[in-house]
Prior knowledge:
The complex is a heterodimer. Chain A is α/β, with parallel strands linked by helices. Chain A folds into two domains: 6-80 and 156-233, P-loop containing nucleotide triphosphate hydrolases (Rossmann fold, 3-Layer(aba) Sandwich); 95-153. Helix content of chain A is 33%, strand content 27%. By secondary structure, chain B is mainly alpha-helical. Chain B has one domain (2-219).
Amino acid sequence: MGLKVVLKAQGLGKDFGLKRVLDGVELSLSSGDLYGLFGPNGSGKTTLLFLLSSLMRPGRGKLLLNGREVRKDPEEFRRQVGLLSHQTFLYSHLTARENLLFYGRLYSQDNLEKRVDGLLERVGLKTESGDLVHTFSQGMRQRLALARAILPHPSILLLDEPYSNLDIQGCQILEEILLERKRDSILLIATHNLDKGLRIMNRAGILIGGQIRDEVDGSLDGFKENYLNRIENRP
Amino acid sequence: MYKIIYTLLYKEILQEFRSKEILTLLFIFTLLVLIIFAFSLGPLFENMEVLTPAILWITFSFAGVLGLNRSFHSEQEEGALRGLALAPVDPGVIYLGKTLANFLFISIIEAIALPIFVVLFYFPFQRPALLLFLVLGTLGFSIVGTLLAGIASNTRRQEILLPILLFPLLVPLLIAVVKGSQLLLMNEPFEKTLNWVRLLIVYDGIFFIISYLTFGYVLEE
């Protein structure tokens, strides 16, 4: 079992022009957390994931990994982060295998070829491993993007609407992978799909008005009703 | 670091080999511009040694801008620039990989276009030092162009913004390569062109350091 990892967001804020998207987000995540971040469209879920992955610089507040500010050693932090975004980050004129090999080399992975072949089999793309990505359906791209995100064994895995474009089998693979990784990693899933998300999560929060509200830990009973009330009553 | 640069460069070459987007575009454009210049100036124009370097660099500059505009296209399609930004790699190394790829693609086009240019303009390519100006000029163009193409790729008006940003910065480089080449074509000794060579080396060096250090801001959201 790996070392326990603690990721803390302290007062994270972000503005786009005059629009305040995030306004002092407080969040503490540690290994074993499978955190569901729920919120309506435009609530800032993607922005928060970009801040938590260090892709975006916060306007206010700070991000700490095991008590150390992330911006002091961003390369070391990025080694520990995997991000599955709306965009797949893939190259359409490379094959599925070449895409994973490319990213694996950027992370200086050991036994890369074996790891890549294993991952392609895990996400159900073994027979298509030599096909160019631009011939893939959206669902196949999403599966490959999932393989890309977990390729470097990240201890922090951030997933933005991971269920989108996945078929039933794809959703099943995704959930199996998440549950396998749960013990040693921080997993954060941003979604507005309550029914799928709540099945596997052990913590959850609602991002609304630029802040995380109504956090629950352990039992997620009543969370859905709370969420729907929040959405209906928002200004 | 070298392994990462090789990985980035290999990826660029593999993609270009498959899509042929940049090289095809650059070759057709270069050929058309050279033919238009050749027809409009005629075969017996005067002051050839003054005009030809300018024609050559106008052609390569405009073709190069087209290539640079496409150089971040593969990163824009599925957001791969974010994938690169997220990797535990010094952004300067990513810049280096992109710059080398752009330098390579523009050099390939120059290598194909130069014999055509020699034939069309009766260009006396007898001084090997002309190659030095070509290499230093292309390197400087790739160094500045890659940084600005990266900046422009984050905007919606990329095709317009890149030449507007790039050409003013290229003025010293273009003056140096054209003036230096003119002196060589006028059969002046190489020593007389040394100031232009020095200017090109300093230009390339300064812009390389600036670009290497600032590319991280280009990757940041």
